[in-house]
UniProtKB/TrEMBL annotation:
Keyword Metal-binding belongs to the record: yes
InterPro entries: 4Fe4S_Fe-S-bd, 4Fe4S_Fe_S_CS, Electron_Trans/Redox
A GO CC term assigned to this protein in UniProt: plasma membrane
Domain called 4Fe-4S ferredoxin-type: residue spans: 241-271, 273-296
Gene3D superfamilies the UniProt entry points to: 3.30.70.20
PANTHER family according to UniProt: FERREDOXIN-TYPE PROTEIN NAPH (PTHR30176)
Organism of origin: Kosmotoga olearia (strain ATCC BAA-1733 / DSM 21960 / TBF 19.5.1)
Pfam families found in the cross-reference section: Fer4_5
One GO MF term: metal ion binding
Protein name listed in UniProt: 4Fe-4S ferredoxin iron-sulfur binding domain protein
Residues that span the membrane, as ranges: 54-73, 82-104, 116-143, 164-184, 196-220
Keywords tagged on the record: 4Fe-4S, Electron transport, Iron, Iron-sulfur, Membrane, Metal-binding, Transmembrane, Transmembrane helix, Transport
Superkingdom per UniProt: Bacteria
UniProt-listed PROSITE patterns: 4FE4S_FER_1, 4FE4S_FER_2
Length: 298
C-alpha cells in the first residue's frame, strides 16, 4: 500500500505543478494553417491553457484513470461500466474523442507541447504500473465497442487467426509513426467512432465507424484487439506492470476464468498476457476467489 500512496502523491504533485505553470505554455496550435509569425504569436496568446480546454482534457484523463485504478484495486468491478459510460460522455462527446488512438501518438511527434505529452504519457505510465486500466475503464473508443457487443450473437475468431491478427496493431503503430515522421501524415479520419464523437460526417469516417460498429456487435472490441496503435503501446508497457492478475493456492483449475475472459488474454488460470485490460471478469467468475490483482511483492 505504501507504493500506491507514493504513486498518488507523485501524481498530485505533477498535476498541481502543471496547473500552477500551465499559463506559461502554448496552447493547441493548428500548424496546418498558413500565417505570418505575428499571427502565430497571436494564436499562442489566445490559446493559453487557462483559456483552452487542453487543461481540462488532461485533468479528465488523469482523474478518470485514477478512478479506474481505485475500482481495480478495490475489486469494485461493478462500477467499471459506469465509469466507462461517464468516460464516453466526457472524453468522447464533450471533448470530441480524447484520446484518439491514432492522433494521440502523432500529436506527440508533431506538437511539442506539455499537454499533449502529459495526456499521452498518463495511460502509458499507468500501464507500466497497474496494467491496461485506461483501455478497460476509460478509453471512449473501447467503451463504445464494448457497449455495442452482444454476447448472444458473439463470434469467436479462430485461435490461430486471432493470434496472428493481434500483431497487426504493432504494424499499424509503426505505420502511424513512420508516416508522421517521414511525410507529416495524420490519420485521424481513419479512427473508428471519431466521426461519432466529433460530428464530422466525412464519408470515410462514416464508413469506418459503420464497419466497426457492426463488427463490435459480434466481436468483442475488434479495433482494440487487432488495430489500435495506442493500445499496442500500452500492451507493451503492461508486460512490465507491477500489478497483475494472479492466482492463489485455492485455485482448482476449473478454467472458468479462461472462458470468461472477453479479451482472450488468459491461456492458463492466473497467467495473463499483455492483452489483459484489467476488466476483472475473470476475478468475478472465480467461485473460490482464487484470482487477485496484486503487486509482485504482495
Amino acid at each position: 500500500m505504501k507504493n500506491i500512496r507514493r504513486f498518488f502523491l507523485v501524481v498530485l504533485v505533477i498535476f498541481f505543478t502543471y496547473i500552477l505553470f500551465a499559463d506559461s505554455f502554448p496552447g493547441d496550435l493548428d500548424f496546418n494553417l498558413p500565417g505570418s509569425q505575428t499571427q502565430i504569436q497571436d494564436q499562442v496568446q489566445q490559446s493559453s491553457y487557462w483559456k483552452h480546454d487542453l487543461l481540462w482534457k488532461t485533468l479528465a484523463v488523469g482523474g478518470l484513470s485514477a478512478i479506474g485504478i481505485w475500482i481495480t484495486l478495490r475489486r469494485a468491478f461493478k462500477y467499471r461500466k459506469v465509469l466507462m459510460i461517464v468516460s464516453i460522455a466526457i472524453l468522447g462527446f464533450l471533448f470530441g474523442g480524447v484520446l484518439c488512438p491514432v492522433t494521440t501518438v502523432q500529436n506527440v511527434l508533431f506538437k511539442y507541447e506539455t499537454a499533449y505529452l502529459l495526456m499521452f504519457l498518463i495511460p502509458v505510465i499507468i500501464s507500466f504500473i497497474f496494467g491496461r486500466i485506461y483501455c478497460g475503464y476509460v478509453c471512449p473508443f473501447g467503451g463504445v465497442q464494448e457497449l455495442l457487443y452482444m454476447k448472444k450473437y458473439g463470434k469467436k475468431v479462430p485461435y490461430k487467426t486471432d493470434k496472428l491478427l493481434r500483431y497487426v496493431k504493432y504494424i499499424v503503430l509503426a505505420i502511424v509513426v513512420i508516416a508522421a515522421l517521414s511525410a507529416g501524415r495524420v490519420f485521424s479520419g481513419f479512427t473508428p467512432f471519431k466521426s461519432l464523437f466529433t460530428f464530422e460526417f466525412a464519408i470515410i469516417g462514416i464508413l469506418i465507424t459503420t464497419v466497426f460498429a457492426i463488427l463490435s456487435i459480434f466481436i468483442y472490441r475488434p479495433f482494440c484487439k487487432y488495430l489500435c496503435p495506442y493500445g499496442a503501446l500500452m500492451a507493451f508497457a503492461s508486460r512490465f506492470s507491477i500489478f497483475k492478475v494472479k492466482k492463489n493456492d485455492s485455485c482448482v483449475n476449473c478454467n472458468l476464468c479462461l472462458k470468461k475472459c472477453p479479451m482472450g488474454a488468459m491461456e492458463t488460470p492466473g497467467e495473463v498476457s499483455d492483452e489483459c485490460i484489467m476488466c476483472g471478469e475473470c476475478c468475478c467468475a472465480c467461485p473460490k476467489n482464487s484470482l487477485e490483482i496484486k503487486s509482485g511483492g504482495d
